[in-house]
Amino acid sequence: MKKVIMALLLLIMAVAATYALYPISAKLPKNTTFDQLEVLKSERKLLAYSKGKVIRSYNISLGANPEGHKQYEGDNKTPEGTYTIHDKNPNSGYHKNLGVSYPNVQDKAAAKKLGKSPGGDIKIHGLRNGVGFIGRLHRFMDWTHGCLAVTDAEIDELYAHTPVGTPIEIKP
Fold first, then answer.
1. Residue 15's pLDDT is what?
2. Cα dihedral angle (73, 79, 84, 87), rounded to 10 degrees?
3. Can you say whether the dihedral through the CA atoms of 83, 84, 86, 91 is positive or negative?
4. Domain count along the chain
5. Spatial contact of 94 and 123, defined as CB atoms under 8 Å apart
6. Taking the mean position of all CA atoms in its chain, how far away is CA 34?
7. Whole-angstrom distance between the N-terminal and C-terminal Cα of the chain?
8. Cα–Cα distance between 167 and 55 in angstroms, integer?
9. How many alpha carbons lie under 13 Å from residue 11 in its C-beta half-sphere?
10. Which residues are annotated as active site (predicted)?
11. Are 77 and 66 in contact (CB under 8 A)?
């Protein structure tokens, strides 16, 4: 039984390594700037726009409880609404990240009515440091605490082309 389990683990690791090495489609020119991001939660897509055109589409993982708008800290939901990219962290525990400006005034008021904290630290991030080899396999489930997860190569691209202040609309 142990040999079968070990063989399966090795197979999974080999497949994961293949997916992790699979490159993003053609490289973007260095002067490309994403000026708007749109998330379609039900489709598990993040669309990156430049000058009104979709330049990239990324498959994403969401919070472990993905349906509905984030209401409070610990609900494992990904927020819905209009926010901005308000910071960039090259030294994240999840490769790199882009900070999403959740919670806004309405989010704080709604959580207060529930007697709870709205939470925060919603990010677009790569994979936890040390497990980047999983690559695209992370998309088989929603696993974050409310963040939007992409591969490490994808967050590298998003990080390079998305300035602080970029609007992001997160739709159901």
1. 55
2. 40
3. positive
4. 1
5. yes
6. 16
7. 43
8. 15
9. 6
10. 125 (proton donor/acceptor), 147 (nucleophile)
11. yes
Record the tokens describing residue 82, joined without a space. Answer: 């209009």
The torsion region of residue 22 among left (phi > 0), alpha (psi -120 to 50) and beta comes to beta
Q: Is 147 a catalytic residue?
A: yes
Q: To which residue do tokens 């709870």 refer? A: 116
The answer to whether 58 and 158 are in contact (CB under 8 A) is yes
Give the tens place of pLDDT for each residue, 126-172.
998 888 888 888 888 999 999 999 999 999 999 999 999 999 999 99
Say which amino acid occupies 120: G
Which of 125, 138, 145, 161 is an active site residue?
125
The domain of 61 spans: 2-23+31-171
Could you say which DSSP state residue 105 is in? Answer: H
User: At 52, which amino acid appears?
Assistant: G
Structure tokens given for 18: 């293949």
Cα separation, 55 vs 33, in Å, equals 10
The beta-strand segments (E) located in the chain are 36-40, 45-50, 53-59, 81-92, 95-100, 123-125, 148-149, 167-171
What number of CA atoms fall less than 13 Å from residue 141's CA on the CB side? 6
pLDDT at 129: 85
Q: What is the CATH number of the domain that holds 57?
A: 2.40.440.10
Name the catalytic one among 95, 138, 147, 161: 147
